[in-house]
């Protein structure tokens, strides 16, 4: 996805994506097979390939969050698929139930293309993040972990942000490697209630 389409998604287009996520989740509880989005209803920006994450919360507690950092499919299809996956396939949580829908909020994050930044130490990364509250991907030795920029609301310190991301990847809190790859990205996002 180009930086142009990432930056020009407007409120109406983001609202359409939120509606797609709601329908994807709703389809699980209705009879018959879930329907994919009808492409003819959407403009070219929503039909362009784009990467996204869909985050679900019930009563303010994380209930599911899955996505991709690379654009593989039209954005409308990515949102549809990631909403269903977040609701029913995130292994960290029990599948979403119908009783939870009244307390459900959905957040869709459309990612910019992650960019590798040249960081030679953890302290350099701390210094960079102190000035740039971006999404972060750390990768090394076939392991990686990602935090969306929204995680800054809960983990305000760059040191703690990095530490928690390393733990998420399965490394120790003090792990650092000369071969660590650091990527940053931003998102355009929208959050709304299921009902």
From TrEMBL:
Q: What is this protein called?
A: AmmeMemoRadiSam system protein A
The AMMECR1 domain sits at 12-195
């Amino acid at each position: 996805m180009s930086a142009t389409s990432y930056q020009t998604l407007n409120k109406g287009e983001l609202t359409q994506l939120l509606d797609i996520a709601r329908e994807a989740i709703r389809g699980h509880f209705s009879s018959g097979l879930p329907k994919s989005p009808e492409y003819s209803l959407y403009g070219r920006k929503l039909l362009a390939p784009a990467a996204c994450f869909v985050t679900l919360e019930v009563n303010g507690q994380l209930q599911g969050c899955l996505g991709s950092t690379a654009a593989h499919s039209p954005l409308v299809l990515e949102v549809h698929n990631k909403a269903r996956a977040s609701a029913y396939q995130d292994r960290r949580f029990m599948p979403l139930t119908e009783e939870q829908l009244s307390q459900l909020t959905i957040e869709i994050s459309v990612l910019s293309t992650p960019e590798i930044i040249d960081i030679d130490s953890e302290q350099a990364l701390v210094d960079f993040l102190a000035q740039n509250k971006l999404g972060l991907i750390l990768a090394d030795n076939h392991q990686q972990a990602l935090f969306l920029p929204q995680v800054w609301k809960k983990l305000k310190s760059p040191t703690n942000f990095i530490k928690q991301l390393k733990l998420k990847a399965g490394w120790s809190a003090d792990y650092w490697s000369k071969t660590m790859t650091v990527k940053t990205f931003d998102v355009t996002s929208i959050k709304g209630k299921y009902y």
